[in-house]
Design brief:
Order of helices and strands: HHH
Helix content: 40-55%
Radius of gyration: 12 Å
Length: about 90
């Protein structure tokens, strides 16, 4: 699966968590998930972040250690690839 396809799938999961239309979520690999203040940053609350990671776990069949912090979409894609054995 290519990075752009993964970004699209992540956007869909994110749209479900935030209860937004997927077309209104504009993310890229550089998009920050937490603590962001710029337009490109999503700035998820702690609860939204956990719900988002649970959605990612279910969709991609991976398991997170909730003590770790994934800050960007790029870090998330790298984690999914590493956990699923995809290169």
């Amino acid at each position: 699966m290519g990075n752009q396809e993964m970004v699209s799938e992540v956007a869909e999961i994110l749209s479900n968590v935030l209860e937004m239309d997927k077309d209104n979520i504009n993310i890229s690999e550089d998009t920050k998930l937490v603590g962001g203040i710029s337009e490109e940053d999503i700035g998820l609350s702690s609860i939204d972040y956990v719900e988002f990671l649970v959605g990612i776990e279910e969709h991609f069949n991976v398991a997170f250690d909730f003590d770790m912090r994934i800050n960007t979409i790029s870090e998330l894609i790298d984690f999914i690839r590493a956990e699923s054995g995809e290169k």
